[in-house]
Amino acid sequence: MQTLNLNGYALPILGLGTWKSTPGEVYEAVKAAIEIGYRHIDCAAIYGNEKEVGKAINECIKAGLVKRDELWITSKLWNNMHGNENVVPALQKTLNDLQLEYLDLYLIHWPIAQKKMFVAATRASHFLSLQEQPIANTWEGMEQAVEQGLTKTIGVSNFSVKKLKDLMTVARIKPSLNQVEVHPYFQQDELVNYCHNNNIQVMAYSPLGSADRPKSFKAADEPVLLEDPIIAKLADKVNATPAQVILAWNLHRGISVIPKSVNTARLQQNLDALQVKLKPADMEVLKMIDKNRRYVDGKFWVVPEGPYTLENLWDE
Ligand code: A2P
Q: How many CA atoms lie within 13 A of 153 on its CB side?
């Protein structure tokens, strides 16, 4: 599989997303994925399913299907564990759940800090502002995790160009990747270019538009990426499915993708997106359908009198 270089480590460009996969579903999905050739699994403590993901990974290793060093496992630090002293304990809990000795990549999940006792933050008093709990301080904990051999690489998620620039000025170990929403309806050219010009790889979450998000995350008038007529036409032309065209578009831009599926046929279909070839003219067609539309818009971090606004989250 094509890989991206993260500080000398090879990230398989296509992985399996596990957000929204219930503990009951994710075990089978991870096993099926590894069996058909997936080598990269994207996890997070907040997904509430790392124990089942870990069980599946370890059974695959024990069965001789794959070796640990052939897999790329990412996980993410939740918002209530920001702060230098909290990072290594949070990572150790994730490693314990995943039954692993090390991660390949550990990310700060959001540039949002919550008080330690609030895993879910619903009111202002649950949050800490980034002045009270600076990213630079949390990053020191991320660097310690590398130095202790608990993760090979570290990065961030949901970071704007401004937040990346700020972090780059203080980081001893530079962030190797930014995981953000990227798909043809939300192309993020400026952020992607900044990352690629600064040796930061990009991983696209919700690469298929995450139609299975909870209702509370959805807008009433939302366009459905997988049902776009221009994508459907192009898919017919290149003899692929709409999902494959959408994934291939990111892959052709050198962006890693982590489509989530708990369905064996769709797992295979998504993996086969690696073989889909798009010509420069096809890429141009897709360039035109950008709607600058986030599906994961971050509104859930905005509460009355709280420290976070959409402006200070996305710096837009
Ligand atoms: P399922 O898990 O039943 O396959 P995202 O990766 O953007 O979060 O999107 C995940 C959503 O897209 C899930 O609802 C998933 O359903 C669905 N999905 C995954 N792969 C495909 C595919 N190849 N075609 C259509 N829908 C897909």
A: 22
> Could you report the per-residue pLDDT of 231-244, keeping only the tens digit for each?
999 999 999 999 99
Q: Which helix (H) or strand (E) holds 106?
A: strand 103-108
Q: How confident is the model at residue 216 (pLDDT cuts 50, 70, 90)?
A: confident
List Cα–Cα distances, 270 to 17, 182, 243, 281, 315, in angstroms: 11, 16, 7, 22, 32
Probe target for ligand 1 pocket from 14, 206, 257, 261, with the most ligand atoms within 8 Å of CB: 261
Identify whether 47 is a catalytic site residue.
yes
Give the residues surrounding ligand 1 with Cβ less than 6 Å away: 17, 206-212, 226, 241, 243, 259-263, 266, 269-270
Residue 168 dihedral angles phi and psi, to the nearest 5°? -60, -30
